[in-house]
Specification:
heterodimer; A: alpha+beta; globular; B: alpha+beta; Ubiquitin-like (UB roll); five-stranded mixed sheet; 5 strands
């Protein structure tokens, strides 16, 4: 969809693209590599915004209800993506599409209306400036209640660099893709589809699908997610001192129980909701029954949001966190970057680096609920001090200076999520190597999180014990992260949920490469074996790295804040620990087949992954290792 | 000797409270504590232990002062001390 020329071209999916990249995050990666020139400003109309689904979307395959959105990130300046569950992905499949690629910038605000074969750009005057839920409501009133809408909120329109894209109160939150959407003056993508989903072997597919569903239904981890959602992790992560408190000054707070999953279930939960094909139903609409933040039907904040908007800012008032979370969703902002940026500002204020002159008179302090709400409003509207914070913590620190950079908890410009790497070394490495900047979901190393001995044996063998299961021991962690990155890239291409659907692919291996290969074959007829699936994951990881190398990324950028590498954890089980990042990286590059000194990818590795053209391009730029 | 026990997920529902102080004879081990708790409730026992062999089910996690039992030198035979904090959870990970 060329927004500038208002021109649509519909292309059949090539079998080469499908076989090499599968869908979702694979398509996003390949299209960004092919179509976004290095050095391009992410807000340039020539940036691409790609919505992509996968070969299992719309089929009812368990936990495959997500869609992926990618662009060059305005927050990090490198590869950017995010994914979201709900019913948008299945609707796009029913309309007959695998991806929508936007380029250019509309002359006035528009939204895309897809109704099977009818694809129209429509005037967005009725929804521009509206919040995300208002936008969905208005467009469903106009086009019908079965229409599925993904939209950016006011934050995306205002180019907040960590704006996300929302659908059914769920967020494709990270990387600032909502700001790219806003920069293109694209408010929403509304989809309705009524076509059948063609399967290569329907009988075989649904027989196999039912077998896998039975595994999910019996799984204890799914049972716990279904009951509590991700907030169940709060108290557990706090107990192992991996729970960020006061901008990662420590990993433990005695107040965690006040905002944990059990309390939310007991006192706030109304019901459970599920996405298409989801057995974990981890979304829990809540009610705040009384007080100034009373709300009838609020969304349960995820573990990450409870951290970012809560403990990271020393806020343990659940009513306030729920309201702040709602605000972020309505404005369309990533809660992790929002809370992370605010906590950076509070720490700088505490240390006298930021003053009332900078904040326009606002007093920043830990636990100040009014200030949290006010800053969220100001960031979304880019008002006053909020205009600076809307740039993200790294850019803001560069403008403030005075040593404020030291307190930015980021990697490559992306605020770090709710894992203190000192308390889990694999997570420390995962944050440093993630292709979209600090992120836990690109590798999602979980086997050491709560000691998964039996699953380590099942997936890798007994020789990896006991060290791999020990989250404070660096042995085998580079392998765990490398392997996890490839598995997660594959999950993101098939759009399998890694959070609520975590347990079977990422713990037990009960839904692993062979099962994914079989599902894809039964759905599409593509005959890719388990080894081929693994190669696709590795290919995507390497192509994302190549995209970033083209933008100037190298080993010097695979780093962590000095708080993680130089300041020992102050309390709890990780007390005295830092992340031994350089040792971890040496081993990680070796396993990847990348150059240890530079983090660049040798031609041999790229060619082995059928990426010769990528090697040629990097060579022409002088970006292959010598 | 008094120790503090924190329950998460299913165990909190079975016990009906978030935490409690449990009194044990001096020299008691982590397994002694778990047996004491299981004695009170068949449901608790069924959720915590494998039916055969009496081992803790693989998806249940027990931590002593933030360290999972698997990583204690004496594992479940570790002797408890006054004021220790024990966490008992089921099927929680991934964040």
């Amino acid at each position: 969809m060329d927004l500038g020329r208002e021109k649509t071209v519909s292309q059949p999916l090539s079998s080469d693209m499908a076989k090499k990249f599968l869908g979702g995050n694979g398509f996003v990666t390949k299209i960004l590599w092919d179509e976004v020139k290095p050095g391009l400003d992410p807000f340039d109309p020539e940036n691409r915004l790609i919505f992509a689904i996968g070969p299992l979307s719309g089929t009812g395959w368990p936990q495959a209800g997500r869609f992926e959105v990618g662009a060059k990130s305005p927050l990090t300046g490198i590869y950017g993506d995010a994914s979201c569950c709900g019913h948008w992905a299945s609707e796009l499949k029913f309309a007959g599409y695998d991806a929508i690629v936007f380029q250019g910038r509309a002359s006035k605000p528009v939204y895309l209306w897809v109704d099977d074969d009818k694809v129209e750009l429509k005037d967005a005057k009725d929804v521009w400036g509206k919040t995300t839920s208002e936008t969905e409501k208005i467009l469903r009133e106009q086009h019908g209640k079965d229409v599925q809408v993904a939209s950016c909120g006011p934050a995306g329109e205002n180019l907040v660099r960590f704006a996300g894209i929302l659908h059914q109160r769920r967020a494709a939150a990270r990387s600032g893709i909502g700001a790219v959407m806003g920069s293109k003056k694209l408010k929403a993508v509304a989809v309705h589809g009524s076509k059948d989903v063609a399967l290569a072997d329907p009988e075989g597919f649904y027989k196999f699908s039912r077998e896998i569903i039975e595994l999910y239904k019996r799984d204890k981890f799914i049972e716990s997610r279904a009951k509590y959602g991700t907030p169940i992790l709060v108290e557990l992560m706090n107990e192992i001192a991996r729970w960020p408190v006061k901008n990662f000054q420590t990993g433990y707070t005695p107040h965690a129980k006040e905002i944990g999953g059990e309390r939310i279930r007991e006192e706030y939960r109304i019901k459970d909701r599920a996405s298409f094909g989801c057995w974990a139903r981890c979304e829990k609409p809540l009610m705040v029954k009384q007080g100034p933040y009373r709300r009838i039907y609020a969304k349960q904040p995820e573990y990450e949001s409870l951290s970012a908007l809560g403990a990271r800012n020393w806020i343990h008032n659940l009513d306030v966190i729920i309201y702040a979370n709602e605000l972020c969703d309505e404005y369309g902002m990533d809660t992790i970057s929002t809370g992370g940026t605010i906590s950076w500002a509070i720490e700088c204020y505490e240390k006298g680096i930021i003053t009332k002159e900078d904040t326009g008179g606002l007093i920043l302090s830990w636990g100040n609920t009014e200030t949290l709400i006010e800053l969220i409003n100001k960031i979304a509207k880019r008002e006053g001090f909020g205009n600076l914070l809307a740039e993200g913590s790294l850019r803001a620190s560069k403008k403030i200076g005075k040593g404020s950079e030291k307190y930015v908890m980021h990697v490559k410009g992306m605020e770090i999520a709710a894992q203190d790497g000192r308390a889990q070394k694999s997570m420390g490495l995962a944050h440093a190597t993630s292709s979209r900047g600090a992120d836990h979901l690109k590798a999602f190393p979980l086997l050491d999180e709560v000691v998964m001995n039996e699953y380590i044996v099942a997936r890798y063998g007994r020789e990896y014990l006991p060290e791999m299961a020990n989250r404070l021991d660096i042995k085998h962690k580079p392998f765990e992260v490398k392997d996890g990155e490839e598995l997660c890239a594959l999950c993101d291409s098939l759009l399998l949920c890694k959070s609520a659907g975590t347990s079977l692919p990422l713990f037990t291996g009960a839904v692993y490469y062979p099962e994914m290969a079989k599902a894809v074959k039964l759905a599409t007829g593509m005959n890719i074996d388990a080894s081929g699936m693994r190669t696709i994951g590795e290919r995507i990881v390497n192509l994302q790295r190549a995209f970033n190398i083209r933008e100037g990324i190298s080993r010097k950028d695979d780093t962590l804040p000095s708080r993680f590498t130089e300041e020992p954890a102050p309390e709890g089980p990780p007390k005295g620990h830092v992340v031994e990042l350089e040792q971890l990286l040496d081993e990680y590059y070796k396993l990847r087949g990348w150059d240890k000194e530079t983090g660049l990818i040798p031609r041999k590795k790229l060619e082995a992954l059928d990426l010769k053209d990528v090697a040629d391009s990097l060579e022409a730029m002088g970006k292959l290792p010598r | 000797m008094k120790v503090n026990v924190v329950y998460l997920t299913t165990f909190r529902e079975i016990v009906g409270r978030r935490s409690e102080t449990v009194e044990l004879p001096d020299g008691s081990t982590l397994m002694d504590l778990l047996e004491t708790l299981a004695e009170r409730s068949q449901k608790f026992r069924k959720e915590l232990f494998n039916p055969e062999g009496g081992e803790i089910r693989s998806y249940n996690k027990v931590a002593l002062n933030g360290i999972y039992a698997e990583y204690l030198n004496e594992k479940f035979a570790t002797k408890l001390r006054e004021g220790d904090k024990i966490l008992i959870a089921q099927g929680v990970s991934g964040g």
